[in-house]
Amino acid sequence: MPSYEIAEIDGVLSRYRSVAVVGASNDPERASYLVAHFLKGHGYRVIPVNPNARDVMGATCYPDLVSIPEQVQVVNIFRRPQDVPAIVEQAIAKRAKVIWMQLGIVNEEAAARAREAGLTVVMDRCMKRELKRYLGLAQRLKLAGPLSA
């Protein structure tokens, strides 16, 4: 991954704290649960989205993005690539800032549409892994202390 993409990912992780998890699950063995749980444990507001669930991890679960009664900053997608375009359209309507397609999810056309609408796009990356990397980097920088000239 080019360094500018790493910087963009780090910017997303540091700037935005509200994450709608599309495809959220209550099954602790599912990737969507593990990622949502990790994000929640690190101070992110996790908003589950799944039309087949009433709540996930004790939080109200919404059937789609447009049903969420508050601002959504990051839309973290755990759905098949062919489902992504409709989710992107909802994210645009919701005025989200970021589309994040989880590891293994790639839809170039949906990514282009999101970028055209002004959203940042992260594709084929795990938000949990990226947050772990980012937190490790932040810790290393903190331990290194201020830079001297």
| SS element count, helices | 5
Helicity range of the residues? 40-55%
Give the percentage of residues in beta strands: 15-25%
CATH superfamily: NAD(P)-binding Rossmann-like Domain
Spell the H/E element sequence.
Answer: HEHEEEEHEHEH
User: Measured on Cα atoms, how large is the radius of gyration?
Assistant: 15 Å
Q: List how many beta strands DSSP finds.
A: 7
The side-by-side strand order for the widest beta sheet comes to 2-1-5-6-7
Distance between the termini: 30 Å
Write the CATH fold name: Rossmann fold
Structural class: alpha/beta
- Overall morphology: globular
Describe the protein:
This protein has a single domain, classed as 3-Layer(aba) Sandwich (Rossmann fold). It has a five-stranded parallel β-sheet, sandwiched between helices. It has a two-stranded antiparallel sheet with strand order 3-4. Helix content is 41%, strand content 17%. The protein has helices at 3-15, 31-41, 84-93, 108-116, 127-144; strands at 18-22, 45-49, 55-56, 59-60, 74-77, 98-101, 120-122.
What would a concise description of this structure say?
With 149 residues, the chain is of the alpha/beta class. The chain is built from five helices and seven strands, in the order αβαββββαβαβα.
